[in-house]
């Protein structure tokens, strides 16, 4: 197994086409096919599957490519520092459920380190994709929640993906809505009182299981339910349709403005928000600073 073979495999995975990958690498398609086949024979894993839609990565291949990307990236950092004598840019990326406080923590971390020497990435995405991003080295850290309902299923998936979950915050459940909502002035709201208003839920794509829902009480039979894929749409639906969603109650006015509020839901449900990392992996200084910023919100949790 060579570094060249790893680069070939990564390029094929990105291009989803042997012909396109060969053009990118400036080699012939037969030579690329031979190199990939020899790599697969050596490691005993079939990385790719040919379909009418092009080249797809097999599940075993996804894990291998995660390690391959890490090896190639580390080599490029060493090459830049010791061969090209360049000062490499350190990298940090995080994948998260749609939490404004987690985005704001990222903003504060970037401000502290600056962007001259560092390269940052943040992904607000679906629950399953967060797990995959950390598993495959796309992100160093993943931010999501567990509760009594999804804990067993997600913990099993974390274990299968060689990931560890660490608690950051514990909180009750809140109804997130705009301040013009008819129920916005209440101290507490019962779920039954929300029946005439649309519940907003983040779409989880092909992994749309109740266990992957970002909102607690996902099995409740909502009279009106609207699925959306991004936070900006949620805010628009809250104002336009008096929609609401269920959340941890942590509001970041700096990012979303002061037009929204969180009202305690009459429920004994609890949420544990935490972070995912690869098992046994050391957290980078950037990652640790990010987690420190999130932990500051622990003092703002109101139950």
TrEMBL record:
InterPro entries: LysR_HTH_N, LysR_subst-bd, WH-like_DNA-bd_sf, WH_DNA-bd_sf. GO terms for cellular component: protein-DNA complex. It comes from the Bacteria. Pfam families: HTH_1 (PF00126), LysR_substrate (PF03466). Keywords: DNA-binding, Transcription, Transcription regulation. Residues 1-58 form the HTH lysR-type domain. PROSITE patterns: HTH_LYSR (PS50931). Belongs to the LysR transcriptional regulatory family. This is LysR family transcriptional regulator. The lineage of its organism: Bacteria, Bacillati, Bacillota, Clostridia, Lachnospirales.
């Amino acid at each position: 197994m060579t570094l060249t073979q790893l680069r070939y495999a990564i390029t094929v995975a990105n291009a989803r086409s042997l012909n396109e990958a060969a053009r990118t690498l400036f080699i012939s398609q037969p030579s690329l096919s031979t190199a990939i086949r020899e790599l697969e024979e050596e490691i005993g894993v079939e990385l790719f599957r040919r379909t009418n839609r092009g080249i797809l990565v097999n599940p075993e291949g996804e894990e291998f490519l995660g390690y391959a990307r890490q090896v190639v990236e580390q080599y490029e950092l060493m090459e830049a520092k010791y061969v090209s004598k360049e000062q490499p840019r350190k990298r940090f990326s995080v994948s998260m459920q749609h939490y404004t406080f987690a985005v704001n923590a990222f903003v504060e971390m970037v401000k502290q380190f600056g962007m001259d020497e560092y390269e940052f990435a943040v992904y607000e995405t679906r629950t399953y994709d967060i797990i995959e991003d950390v598993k495959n080295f796309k992100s160093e850290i993943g931010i999501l929640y567990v509760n009594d309902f999804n804990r067993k299923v997600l913990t099993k998936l974390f274990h299968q993906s060689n990931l560890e979950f660490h608690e950051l915050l514990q909180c009750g459940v809140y109804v997130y809505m705009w301040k013009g909502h008819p129920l916005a002035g209440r101290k507490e709201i019962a779920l039954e009182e929300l029946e005439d208003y649309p519940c907003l839920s983040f779409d989880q794509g092909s992994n749309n299981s109740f266990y992957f829902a970002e909102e607690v009480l996902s099995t409740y039979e909502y009279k009106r339910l609207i699925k959306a894929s991004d936070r900006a749409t949620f805010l628009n639906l809250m104002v336009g349709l008096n929609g609401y969603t269920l959340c941890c109650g942590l509001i970041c006015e700096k990012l979303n403005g002061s037009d929204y509020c969180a009202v305690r839901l009459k429920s004994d449900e609890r949420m544990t928000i935490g972070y995912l990392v690869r098992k046994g992996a050391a957290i980078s200084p950037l990652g640790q600073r990010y987690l420190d910023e999130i932990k500051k919100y622990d003092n703002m949790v109101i139950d």
